[in-house]
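Record format v2
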Amino acid sequence: MKPISPKSFSVVALVTLAVLFLGNVATSIILDPFNVFGLTKFNKRNFQPNLRHMKFEYLKNHEFSGYILGTSRANMYATRLASSLTGTKFYNLNSNSSTPYDMRRQFEWLIGRQPVEHLIFALDFDEFDAPLEHPAFDLAALEHPEVSKSSILYYWNYLWVHPNHYAIAIYGNLLKRDTWFKYDITTGHYYFPVYDRQKKRDPKTYIRERFRQNYEGYDWTPNPEHIRHFRDTVEQAKKNDIKISVVINPKNHRLYRAFDKVKFASWLTDIVEISGEVWDFSGLNSVTLNDELYYEESHFTFRVGDLVLKRLFGTDFDKSTLPADFGVRVTRSNLPERVEQLKNQ
Amino acid sequence: MLFNSDIFIFLFLPITWILFFLVRKLENPLYIYLLLIAASLFFYSWWNPIYLPLLVFSISFNFVLSRYFYVPPHKYFSRRNVLVAGIAGNLAVIAYFKYSGFFADNLSILLGADIQLHKVALPLAISFFTFQQIAYLVDSYRNQTRQYGFLQYCVYVSFFPQLIAGPIVYHSEVMGQIEKLNGSSDLADNFYRGLNLFIIGLAKKVLIADNLAIYAQMTFNAAENGEAVGMIPAYMGTLAYTFQLYFDFSGYSDMAIGLALMFQIRLPFNFDSPYKATNIIDFWRRWHVTLSRFLKVYLYIPLGGNRKGDFRRLANILVTMILGGLWHGASWNFIFWGLLHGLFLVINHAWIQVCTVAGPGHLRTSKPYVIGARVLTFVTVVLAWVFFRAETFGGAILVLEGLLGRNGLGMEAAGSYSDATWYLLPAAVIAFLAPTSQAWLGISAQGRTEGGDSGRVPFVYVRWPPTLFTAVAMGGIAFATIFMMRGLSEFLYFQF
């Protein structure tokens, strides 16, 4: 091939880089698999968008008076049931790998925009161990820039979507027959339709194939910064006369058994000290020991979510239908008893 | 600011270069110096502005002291005393920031007391800019420098491509170039070579080193947690680290040299295919070349070098290598790593003497000998890296036990390393068989330790020929590498 001058070489190399970059920028904006640019509405199913971003965009124009905050597990607390039991119009603001720091920022965004009556905090021991900030390349979990008060560089991350993500989004939306993942932005919920069908059809095979996580070597230690953020959030909520309900999520026994019980007890103590009253659904009980009520070790089903909501807000009749060993109201007075009970399990 | 970050690649570098291009047109070097100093200080303070005054103080302190050697000495302050004070001042700063905690911890153990010092963060690049300036002071004392202006000196020390992790440059290599920055050097030609070198370095770091890091981390973290390391994890982890370190640091060096070239400054090369070395002496001529030569010129030779008999020579080698180990970090592992290399060098020198006196010298050039020597050198270096990488002595021992097979094969953990081969194989092929980046780009190997103001780095010819195809390919490699850069990682040598 004919040699070119050093100057031409540099120009061609840089122009190539620029063309590829701009091509990728255009693809990122048009396909928008994480649904952050919002110019097209291509991704509707089978590719997990940045639901946090979408929810806060939605909430800019829609008002609710109650919010459910927590990780993806909090998704299973149905807003319809919560609303009907409490009379408060709830929105499920669960977000992927949400930490107490995330919840604080989300809460502050909410109270800055609209009146809030009721908050349900759905807490997970293991999420208190997470780093404060999500890595920039975790595109499905980055906080909305208005919530995190981050710069325009937030959008820069979404201009570098990997080609395999484009491929998965195109395949999932246009070609895949089954719907594995879908979401409803009006309630804040997401669903696993195929898993639901598989569970229903053959629960034993489902459990055998889906419950495979090995937690050996895991050692979660709550980050004091997260504890501080949770304390600040609760204090702010109380100052604003917002009703709060704090729930310790019902962990599947396989995950719960991997926790260091001393650290868990200490964490529970902190949460009760901060909140005053906590509904604890952790530990080993007839629900958490039943794998059929879980998608995998980490996520319970809507059926479990309903049981939790009924324990919190249900009528006496509702409560009489619940498993007696599921859910303990823990306050400062019965905390030592509860800790002892969990230790002895 | 990291070279492999968006902010550097998309904002800092293009803006700085465009300003450099425009300022050159003013044909007044003063503006170029001011631009490069401002850019470099901004680059440095991006990490943590709190240590910017330290850098500025260090530069000013050493410049003022060096000027003393050009005036008739005061009767109370001999030149030698001023030099000693200068070196002591530099070492005191580095001792405080880098070694005080280490010494306090060890004194506590030794005396059975609880000596607590206020913990301070290690200022970025302190080892590099301190050593560079000590060399300058010594050379000024020896009347080997000229009276450079303050701004020129600032550019020499703070020049952002080499400020953070070298190469450690001599004034003689760059000062002449800094003086001629507004001259009529071939901007397009240097930019072209610099751009290529920068992209190759970035690719080494992002595509190879960062991927290998995962496997090295798995093995060494397990060892640090006190877990028994199986044979497969031990070998995979240790080899992964061996190549990670090489591609990380040589990638960084390529980027630094490439960036400097874009700004018309030729820096000395730091790597010359070190894993092709046939003995440890050869290895240190190829690995972190600018540090090796610094230790030789400013430590080994002043200690007496080989001028005071065999015993002193061997002792000097050991002392130099131990201090070289300590330079990398305040830990017994680094000291032991330095000691190991010192011992390897001593054995190497002894072997050469044995061969010279008693052995058939011609055997040393035979192919089987060379291959055997390469393998032995590589194995030796790899074993020493275990102490370099491990955070504790106990961790290193656990990995070594794994290498010796004392904990079985470790099949249960082997699955986690199955993808490592995809990175280890190409890394090994490049490290053992491919030419260095500079050779690939046709930059003379002579430049590996020299280069500099006399312009002695001849660009013989470019083996990556400048054609339309290679230009498009280089643009594509740059794009792919920047794409893969999403998970940002620091360069290993930033910590030293």
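Residues 189-495 of chain B form one domain.
Residues 390 and 396 of chain B are 5 Å apart (CA to CA).
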